[in-house]
């Protein structure tokens, strides 16, 4: 969907689409708000540990938040990894806002932001039990591999990977 830039440009800018969704970088106050209603974004899973301040202070320029009428609907924390690819550390959409294409939009913006920084691919991981995340990533064209002993917490993870389209 075509975006109108409210301030800045693609890199670190704020944009609004015709349906009133504002996309902008994540701020510390957003993390505080999200942590205050974590179940709305992560259901019953306690994923608080994902929301460290460094994803705003060190990697904030490649974070994306979707807002509607001032309410946070979805967000993505990510960065350019040492191998040069984009890495999505966390992505979540408010329960009642799922299925509206918001996560797809966050990934599109993230792809633009990391491409500007030289990345040619995007990677993400999830727990093997997270069928919704798997279905989402497969719909977006990510390959999926089960990697044993990936994490010190609970072992195996699904690793998603996709090349970014040529600009
Ligand atoms: C996974 C998640 C981020 C998807 O967000 P979303 O905004 O609902 O996804 P979108 O609406 O952008 O979906 C994009 C496509 O993926 C598909 N998809 C998304 N979630 C799906 C699901 N649970 N089952 C099947 N397909 C799904 C959609 O059908 C859509 O396909 P389409 O474009 O062909 O219609 C969201 O369900 C969520 O926040 N879950 C809880 C947190 C989480 O698990 N995050 C991922 C950790 S890696």
Can you characterise this structure?
This protein is α+β, with helices and mostly antiparallel strands and 167 residues long. The protein has a single domain (3-119), classed as Gcn5-related N-acetyltransferase (GNAT) (Aminopeptidase), CATH 3.40.630.30. Helix content is 25%, strand content 35%. It has 5 helices and 9 strands, in the order E-E-E-H-H-H-E-E-E-H-E-H-E-E. The chain has helices at 28-36, 38-42, 54-57, 102-116, 131-139, and strands at residues 3-7, 14-17, 22-24, 64-68, 71-80, 86-93, 121-126, 143-151, 155-163. The chain has a 9-stranded mixed beta sheet. Bound molecules: coenzyme A (COA). Coenzyme A is lined by residues 42, 91-93, 98-104, 124, 126, 130, 132-133, 135-136, 139.
Features:
167 residues; alpha+beta; nine-stranded mixed beta sheet; 5 helices; globular; binds coenzyme A
Look at the structure and give the CATH class.
Alpha Beta
Q: What distance lies between the first and last C-alpha atoms, to the nearest angstrom?
A: 17 Å
User: Helical region count?
Assistant: 5
Number of domains: 1
Q: How can the largest sheet be summarized?
A: 9 strands, mixed
CATH superfamily: Gcn5-related N-acetyltransferase (GNAT)
Kindly report the average pLDDT value. 94
* Helix and strand pattern: EEEHHHEEEHEHEE
Strand order of the largest sheet: 1-2-3-4-5-6-7-9-8
- Report the helical percentage: 25-40%
State Rg.
15 Å
The total beta strand count reads 9
Query: Might you state the CATH topology name?
Result: Aminopeptidase
CATH-defined architecture: 3-Layer(aba) Sandwich
